[in-house]
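hey so u asked for the seq, here:
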Amino acid sequence: MIEKLERLIERSFDLHETIYGHLESLEPAPLPRADIAFDAGLLALEHATAALELIDSGRVSSAFALMRPQFESLVRGVWLAHAASDLWVEKLSQPLTLAAQRQANEGPMLAEMLKQLETCPEAPAHIVAQLKEYRDVSWKVLNSFNHGGIHPLSRSISGYPPKLIYDALRNSNAVLALTTQLLSIMSGDEKNMSPVRRIHSEFADCLPIIHGSSR
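ran it, structure tokens below
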């Protein structure tokens, strides 16, 4: 399993490099909704890359702690793209001030965003279903790592089984792939989805919940 994990880490760096190569020429469509959703996707991308680098350097607890904000940033991006009201798009697009922060703090939490996405006819159902699946399987553990709970405390004593790191990294890669899809869609040009499909196919061994999702 250690060799499989080392190979996955190597392949994951290749995946990130390929995704960055695809995204470097993309810009959001000239719409406030696309612009702020694109920014949320870039934030998720940053968390994913940082988590991979931390895993590679042996800082696994810190890597796992980034996987919740990685996921939350993606969900917020998909919500902003498809389900958020124009008012919320405007609020979250404001420069950072105390007033803007107070308004943002009143926004929907992750569960509510997913609920709104479920009932939004414009939201891609296959992506929403995968987001819900990831939340249902991983949320409690991710929270534990974010809040210094029993999971990181226990693992700091017992260590991390390679299989646990392997599975967590594959899931992070899956969230990364969905993020790439969001960013490509927010460019407003359908032809930018073709490279995403090729990436999903080329790196299928890294992506446990993505197979067949690029529609």
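The chain has one domain: 2-20+28-206. The mean pLDDT is 93.
lmk if thats what u needed
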